[in-house]
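Q: Could you write out the predicted structure for this multi-component system? I'm mainly interested in how the pieces pack against one another.
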Amino acid sequence: MLITLEEARHEPFRWDEVAELDLEELEIPELASLGSIACAGTVSAAQDGYLVRARLEYSQGLVCTRCLEASSSEECCDFELLVLVEEQAEEAPFDFELEAELAEQDLDTMTIVGETLDTLPLIREQIQLGVPMKPLCSSECRGLCPECGINLNQGDCKCVAPVDPRWSGLAALKAQLGSEDASES
Ligand SMILES: [Zn+2]
Ligand SMILES: [Zn+2]
């Protein structure tokens, strides 16, 4: 949605929106699905621009980097962002100075040209930030068998597991007992 910043000049503008993002446009391979994004917050005039304070709620499906299964979760993120308004795009040198100053305040900033704030790029950025570098379906995920590719969370395969050194003595004993024993197990 487009917010006319003029409306936020004297009193905070209430931002309520349900946004849809195109999954392909996001280009995040780990993101398998994305539901509607409920945005609620305010846009208020600040010293150097406009302060956006909002919460996004949405469901997303992430592909586990170990087992490659997608699992969905409900996400909720709060964020603050300072929107700097530039009259014309040419004022870059001045803007660099401003950004350096603002970086010290530890606030995320975004510079826009003109008095209209498009919320989509802003939402897109938060969604991207919400995707971990290496998503896992669970910290205990056993991943895929490197031999046959079966998902080990769903069951064991018949591939030979690496031998635990503590059992190597037993394995040697088994080998001595002959192949008949092994084929029955
Ligand atoms: Zn997994
Ligand atoms: Zn296997």
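A: Regarding packing and overall arrangement: Residues 64, 66-67, 69, 136-137, 141 surround zinc ion (ligand 1) (CB under 6 Å).
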